[in-house]
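Hi U.,

Before I forget, here's the chain from the pilot set. I'm dumping it here mostly so it's searchable later in email.
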Amino acid sequence: METTVNALKIPRSVLVIIHTPQRDVLLIERADFAGFWQSVTGSQESGETFAETAAREALEETGIDAAHYGGVRDLHYENVYSIYPRWRHRYPVGVTHNQERCFAICVPQKITPMLAPREHVAFEWLAADQAAKRVYSWSNAAAINYWRAAG
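Structure:
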């Protein structure tokens, strides 16, 4: 979430895989792009660490407070991807790629998230292999598959 209306995003972000011990993964559908299912994502704000960004975004987008579940776990995995042209206006002129650091939060069971209505309109819990197939972006699928393989 941007701190001011005209603030340009920093081209560094997080992706947070929220999951259960049984390896079910929470996916959320974007409000501004029907059919775009994803894990929690968000841009880093000035002065934040990646872990702080991950915890903030999970709370803002789902109401899930990582601190209640042992915090965010750094997966030590990153993707660099091309920013979709439709969203490049949100970044400084000339920025075309984003660095995305991946994290996980383990919740004890499938819980009902409190979605940020301006950002997401629906949620679902899926087995990890199904979640990797359902997400819209290749980087989200790659992160889920990395998390699955890393155990």
